[in-house]
Design goal:
The protein is an alpha+beta fold and 125 residues long. The protein has two helices and six strands, in the order E-E-E-H-E-H-E-E.
Amino acid sequence: MKTIITSPKAPAPIGPYSHAVLSDNTLYVSGQVGKDAETGKIVNETIEAEAHQVMKNVHFILLEAKMGFEHIVKTTIFLKDLNNFDTVNKVYGSYFLDNFPARETVEVSKLPLNVNVEISVIAVK
């Protein structure tokens, strides 16, 4: 059994997928980009601002499932340019206190909406 999780504060999906799917106690959050749901614009003045918006969007979805960053067990970070790794890593790390989730980071040639970073997560209650 699965429950679809949607947050009105996160940008609407741009394809046939859900913000997240909750199955038992596990939440699978689709890749989030740095789009501001209120303005409809990509926040990309700097890579830091874009990464923060991505993490905010992840947070909005976690909150809908009554979870927080402490529930994340696995993340995947997609970067258009791996030279931004250190900057994105610093922003990403600022959202966790300890007990960091497992993670991989990969460079890709292109991302939806021509963004620089996309992050997906798996969280468990």
